[in-house]
Amino acid sequence: MDPLSISTGVAGLIGLALQVAPILNAYISDVASARTDIQSYIREVDALSQVSELLQSFLDSSAAVNGQFQTTEAVLCQTIKSCETCLMDLVRMLSKPTSLARRLLWTMEKQKVESIMERVRRYTQLFHFALSVEGWAVLSQTPAEVTAILEMQMQMSKKMQEIVHVTESAKAYREKTEQVAAVLEHMRLLFADEGRRLVEIQERVEDISRGLKDDREMEVLEWLTREQGPGRHHEVRSRRTAGTGRWMLKQSTFKDWVDPASSTRLLWCVGGPGCGKSTLMSFVVDELKTLHPGHEAAVAYYYCDYRARTTQPLLPALGSLVRAFSEASHGLPRSLQTLFDACRRERRPPLVSELEGILSEICGSFKYPFVLIDALDEFSPSDPAQTTYLTCLLDALAQNGVRVFMTSRTGPEPSLLTSGYSVVNYTADNADIRTHVAHALHTDDSMVALLDSQLEEDISNTIVSQASGMFLLAVLHLQNIRGQVSRAGIRRSLSTLSRDLGDAYDKTFEAITHQSQSQQQLAFDALLWVASSYRPLSALELRHALATRIGDDDWDIDDVSPLGLIIKSCCGLLSVDNIKDGQSEVRLVHHTLQEYLQSRQPTWFARAHEVIAQTSLTCLLFKSSGLPTATGRKRSSPSTKRHALVPFARKSWGFHAAMVPLESYQELAMRLFKDKSQLSALYPENRCISGIHIAAGFGLNGLVLQMAKEGLDVETFDSNHQSPLQYACAYNHTETALQLLKLGANPNHLNIKRDTSLFLAVGNGNIKLATILLDHRALPGQLGRDNWVPLHKAADAGYYDIVELLVRRGSWISSRSAKGVTALHRAAGRGHIDIMAFLLSKEASVEATTHDSWTPLHGASSSGQTPAVTLLLQHGANINHRSLDQKTPLHRACRGGHLDTVQTLLNHNADLMAQDADGNLPLHIAAREGHSAVVKHLLTRSPLQQLQHKNKTGLTPLLESQWSGSRDTELLLLQQEPTTITSP
Questions:
Q1: Which terminus of the chain has fewer Cβ atoms in its 10 Å neighbourhood, N or C?
Q2: How many whole angstroms separate alpha carbon 287 and alpha carbon 266?
Q3: pTM greater than 0.85
Q4: If we measure between CA atoms, which residue out of 144, 148, 124, 128 comes closest to residue 136?
Q5: Residue 266 bridge partners (DSSP)
């Protein structure tokens, strides 16, 4: 603040003081009891007014004050602002009440007014001190600096007073000491008061900011994966008897794996089906968390599930791992937040490569990162290539220092592993089995009544012997024994125990048949639904499914059976995370039970899909299912529990129908499709949807053909102006799409989002379907959403074969989106080297610019795609090209913290001193974003010149790091020679 600004502020104080006087005088007539107090207040305000006028005259007359102020944080600047606020508070307080209110409230208001007037007195004293060149010079400093100066002056005056105490000068030094002490006290009190007010404001702001940050972080974490949280781990752990797995800690291979100095970073636990690998992993997870409770370590885990229905199993797996590491961090990684924003903006899921990069980055932020994967053989049974990819990814993490633990039925393929690894051949420990048997027997009241020490020992010995290291077999045998009602029955059961898992399942099914007819039916129906449903069912969904009777017009809530009864009737073949929680997932006791049902119960298993399809359609036909609460629009309503099966039935019935003959469900489906009001109620977000849309979306060719024969137009559109053909393409039903094309469907129709059928097929990576559409006159260059063409989508997703197909069929490689983006931009930003090379071979422009003047090199640098950067440079890309905001590729790489990319750009002579539109060097950007490794590398070249450079706001890289709170980069910059760092 310059002297002119200070003079203006002082003039404002004089004006405010003149406003206060009339208001104070008005109080005298209205509040008699306040007259004496008010008169003293008027004198205080007059004194402030007078000293302010003197201060203004001093400013006008003295040339010595010019240039004193270098910061708005100076004590005098802050005092003027604070005094102005103080007087405004006084005006507001004394001018609001009515005359009657003043009389009633004065005694309460007096304390507040006194507090304000006390501050006015202190301001007056400080302004008096400023009426000299010396005082002015002192108060032109910051509060901390003024305090230090005044304390030094006070100590000096005291010493001088002691030296000259016998002379006349002692009085002057004593007065000087008292004056300085008074000013120091006034300043401390004033700024302490202001500090308290500031702290209160800051705390309120921090509370709001913290709440917003927590909400955003939870949104990002939920977006990463909703598939599997800690519930699965807790369910496995809940079945683990205390002490189970502790023997593992004594194994030399495990000790070696945990040892940070060991080269063994990958431990592969191999065991047969049902031996207890999941239980063992749950123990290892908990033990690692106990061994490393601080922030230096993080434990991420994922339980593979054969029931997962996804063509991209890597996304939920990597999402779970990234989420676990993020939750263990002090805050979400900036790269994760950037990816979330980009995906939300582009309305797409993350790419595997993007999550893989973030996982690698976040693992590096921990001293002891652990990744544990259970049942790798169940990861992607239908696509082994996905399992191979995950194995190689985990091996790469292990090479970079992550400790990886995996379980599977089969051992590793040595050719896939390059890091140091060990294999543990695992069977259930006999001591663990004994502990589990003892716990189960002693927590079952009916068994306690039958047991004696000898019988208990016989049970334990027999089960351990027959289990042969298979924990699941021990559990099943124990279940059969607990179903006996006499000691003799227990001994007979022990004599028939088998070491074959299939035989054990046979016995359990036999036990189910010994129950009442109703319980048998309940058990078999429950097993049918859990084993065959398209997706896992919650406890409430299962209960409602079992209560829905095919052919009924509506359902009776009294048909719903308790969950405990359902679980009990299945004789241990079903498990649930939490029996008291209706949203808990119900699952088969083990994957081997699924295999048993498919192999030994083929007839029973075959009719499961028919039952589920018919039951789901029956549920959708119930009039109560069409009520608003059934569709999820009023989630908080208790009555939603009446319709728990509707979401599953709506989204899944067609998957089961696709596996059975048309005649088994056609009548129910056509009844539903012809009931327009029911369809509108079931699909409130899409009221124009028709039966042919639904059938096409499920790939039900027979049903589509039947409706076409009945005269239904294949060019009918839903609320999103989407055609049945687009439904078939969106859900990858190639044969259904072909059938619709033969029936006359238009392949070039645009939905409300401006997506064509070809664009949807390309997005799914379905080259067969894309070829069929092109053969039926789909336009390869038709502009879609944001003026993207299918080639943009294929290049973005990395589908090389489809890129080649589209170019061969006439797609223009230089086609630009609404923002000027080309296919090469998208491929470069994603790092798809093969596609980039192909496009460049077809003469794609390496210098093509978007509307904000980004080149493909900007995109590759921004996302840290170093091989892509190298390829573009080899093809002549301008390394110092500036975008609209004057940023070069090096600026972009520094912002993302991509060290390899930064090194590559610098090795190709990127301009280290290039300034963006705000005057920032790449070092400013890296320092602000907290990328220490990048900052360190940049400083290996011309450090002095970079460190001294100020951007347009006058900040050096050091000050940028300080303003942004990037502590690591601040410390790194401070380690440089002090003479190389200057303030603005």
A1: C
A2: 17
A3: no
A4: 128
A5: 404, 421
239, amino acid identity = R
Alpha-carbon distance values, 72 to 2, 56, 84, 373, 521 (Å) = 9, 19, 15, 57, 82
pLDDT (0 to 100) of residue 970 = 84
Residue 374 host element (H or E): strand 368-374
> Is the pLDDT reported for residue 101 higher than 90?
no
Please work out, in degrees rounded to the nearest 5, the angle formed at the alpha carbon of residue 386 by the alpha carbons of 383 and 387: 100
Q: What is the distance, to the nearest Å, from the Cα of residue 264 to the centroid of all Cα atoms in its chain?
A: 31
Lowest average pLDDT, out of 70-74, 161-165, 222-226, 669-673, goes to: 161-165
* Long-range own/partner contacts, residues 168-177 (CB < 8 A, 24 or more apart): none
Q: Which amino acid is at 683?
A: Y
Strand order in the sheet with 574-576: 537-538, 585-588, 574-576
102: closest CA among 22, 35, 17?
35
**What's at 271, amino acid-wise?**
G
Q: How far apart are CA 477 and CA 298, in angstroms?
A: 38
State the residue for tokens 């044969």. 735
Query: Distance from CA of residue 510 to its chain's centroid?
Result: 48
Task: Name residue 352's amino acid.
Answer: V
Of 899 and 81, the one with more pLDDT: 899
Q: What percent of the chain has pLDDT over 70?
A: 81
**Can you tell me whether residue 301 is helix, strand or coil?**
strand
Mean pLDDT of the chain: 83
> Over the stretch 315-347, which tens digit does the pLDDT of each residue have?
999 999 999 999 888 778 888 988 888 888 777
| Helix, strand, coil abundance in the chain, percent, nearest 5 | 65, 5, 30
CA separation for the pair 474, 160 (Å, rounded): 93
Each residue's pLDDT tens digit, 502-559: 888 888 898 899 899 999 999 999 999 999 999 999 999 999 999 999 888 888 888 9
Q: Is the pLDDT of residue 104 over 70?
A: no
Conformation bin of residue 701: beta by default, left when phi > 0, alpha when psi is -120 to 50: alpha
CATH superfamily of 225-426: P-loop containing nucleotide triphosphate hydrolases (3.40.50.300)
Is the domain spanning 912-980 CATH 1.25.40.20? The answer is yes
| CB-CB contact of 527 with 585 (8 Å) | no
Rounded Cα gap, residues 791 and 824, in angstroms:
10
* pLDDT tops 50 at residue 168: no
Query: What is the distance between the terminal CA atoms of the chain, rounded to a whole angstrom?
Result: 15
Q: Which amino acid belongs to residue 971?
A: L
User: Which amino acid is it at 716?
Assistant: T
3-state secondary structure of 879: coil
- 10 Å Cβ neighbour count for 165? 12
Compute the radius of gyration of the chain from its Cα atoms.
38
Question: Quick one: which of 616, 494, 505, 473 has its CA closest to 570?
Answer: 505
Q: Looking at per-residue confidence, does 688 or 44 come out higher?
A: 688
Mean pLDDT, to the nearest integer, of 417-425? 83
The amino acid sitting at 247 is W
In this structure, is the dihedral angle defined by the CA atoms of residues 534, 535, 539 and 540, taken in order, positive or negative? negative
Task: Tell me if 359 sits within 8 A of 323, measured CB to CB.
Answer: no
Predicted confidence (pLDDT) at residue 163 exceeds the cutoff of 50: no
Using CA atoms, how far apart are residues 855 and 824, in angstroms rounded to an integer? Answer: 9
pLDDT range class, residue 983, cuts 50, 70, 90: very low
pLDDT at position 29, please?
57
- Taking the CA atoms of 327, 333, 334 and 339 in sequence, report the sign of the dihedral they define: negative
SS3 of 345-362: HHCCCCCHHHHHHHHHHH
| Residue 837: CA count within 13 A, CB half-sphere | 7
